């Protein structure tokens, strides 16, 4: 019972201050995502920051992440890549970035 109240309090503080849980893992980009990055002049660092700290919306097996910066919004679609467990290879979490965009540049 004590743990339930502790979890509830931690979630409440996260929501009040806008702290989200950071996602960790390796990002893998599709060819389409690289083309979109070049078109919108986005760096891997910006997409990593959006991925780690953006707001997530689930759409089936794909996830949409958006993050609003001072003058624009960056978004991306990703899918989790599951790697099979092998005794000689360590398992790591990987995310396939399908596409990305930049929009809403404000003056």
Q: Could you give a short account of the major beta sheet? A: 5 strands, mixed
Strand order of the largest sheet: 1-5-4-3-2
Head-to-tail CA distance between termini: 51 Å
Helix count, per DSSP? 3
The stretches of 5 or more residues where confidence is low (pLDDT under 50) are: none
Total number of domains: 1
Percentage of β-strand residues: 25-35%
Can you describe this structure?
With 107 residues, this protein is α+β, with helices and mostly antiparallel strands. The protein has one domain. Helices cover 34% and strands 33% of the residues. It is built from 3 helices and 5 strands. The protein has helices spanning 2-17, 31-40, 44-53; strands at 26-29, 55-59, 62-68, 73-81, 94-103. Strands 1-5-4-3-2 form a 5-stranded mixed β-sheet. The N and C termini lie far apart (51 Å).
């Amino acid at each position: 019972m004590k743990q339930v109240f502790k979890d509830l309090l931690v979630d409440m503080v996260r929501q009040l201050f806008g702290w989200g849980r950071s996602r960790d893992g390796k990002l893998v980009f599709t060819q389409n995502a690289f083309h979109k990055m070049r078109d919108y002049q986005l760096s891997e660092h910006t997409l990593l920051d959006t991925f780690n700290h953006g707001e997530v919306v689930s759409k089936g097996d794909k996830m949409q992440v958006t993050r609003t910066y001072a003058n624009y919004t960056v978004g991306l679609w990703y899918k989790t890549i599951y790697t099979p467990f092998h005794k000689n290879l360590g398992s790591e979490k990987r995310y396939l970035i399908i596409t990305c965009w930049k929009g809403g540049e404000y003056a």
